[in-house]
What we know:
By secondary structure, the protein is an alpha/beta fold. It has helices at about 5-25, 60-70, 95-105, 120-125, 140-150, 155-165, 185-195, 220-240, 305-310, 315, 330-335, 355-359; strands spanning about 30-35, 80-85, 110, 130-135, 170-180, 200-205, 245-250, 275, 280-285, 295. It has one domain: Aldolase class I (TIM Barrel, Alpha-Beta Barrel). Helices cover about 35% and strands about 15% of the residues. A 10-stranded mixed sheet has the order 7-6-5-4-3-2-1-8-9-10, with helices on one face. Helix 4 links the parallel strand 3 (about 110) and strand 4.
Amino acid sequence: xxxxxxxxxxxxxxxxxxxxxxxxxxxxxxxxxxxxxxxxxxxxxxxxxxxxxxxxxxxxxxxxxxxxxxxxxxxxxxxxxxxxxxxxxxxxxxxxxxxxxxxxxxxxxxxxxxxxxxxxxxxxxxxxxxxxxxxxxxxxxxxxxxxxxxxxxxxxxxxxxxxxxxxxxxxxxxxxxxxxxxxxxxxxxxxxxxxxxxxxxxxxxxxxxxxxxxxxxxxxxxxxxxxxxxxxxxxxxxxxxxxxxxxxxxxxxxxxxxxxxxxxxxxxxxxxxxxxxxxxxxxxxxxxxxxxxxxxxxxxxxxxxxxxxxxxxxxxxxxxxxxxxxxxxxxxxxxxxxxxxxxxxxxxxxxxxxxxxxx
Length: 359
């Protein structure tokens, strides 16, 4: 394991903090999967969202009742609510929900493909108390439209990005799912984002879930994954003060790249300080973990706060994951089996970032 003494010291400290957080499990982030409807047909969709999904939208009243059940137990200023989908902006009552969250003093944000974010909608969301917004952009025009399955998706995302660059109220960033088609063009995309005034750029590698599981051609090979780490590290070194902040996603322990490509050391927070409420009422960790890890369902009478405090054992104690290639791994104490979203329905790890990058 090629880790510096500074990295080892940081990882040891992170390990202790991780175990303390798992014991205390303060709820800091709640994802609300408000719909599975979507106006795109993305090749890499982890939820396999559709224009007419089989699961209806969760009624706003049901979600707000869950929020109200949490209110006696949490400081609303320290619990961030992130609205996602599907495509969250397809809900015409999103601003109504946002105003109710704002009235209850919960900060909230939205993840969107940007297609419906025109000036009127942005003003409406900001007036409803929206605190942050993330826009997905998966490459330059040809690459993004190919990935999203819509000929106007890049133009609409560009419009959203340029609108956000002119407003000064909400925090915002852009996320990109890196694949073999857009990987060679990352320097060009970086320049475009900087010119557009994007403050922060997060890059993900696609993991095999949903539609992406059926298309192995979306996965970076090991050399490209290492190249992605080098690219991000280089961006961070030469961005300068006030430049666009570039980082890799939270997924996966990265070995020698820990502390060099993102502002935090690896820690899978699903079920530790992150929970989600799925469209069908299921209570889980982050929305990227599979349904077999759901911990309850509000439509079965489960109370989210009670579930948060009495379940989630498999997410907070990861000893079950020390099997197979992980059993004798030299970095287990720092990784503890990588991100939970990287496990299949049988509890088997699908990909190991550490071995791919450091192997």
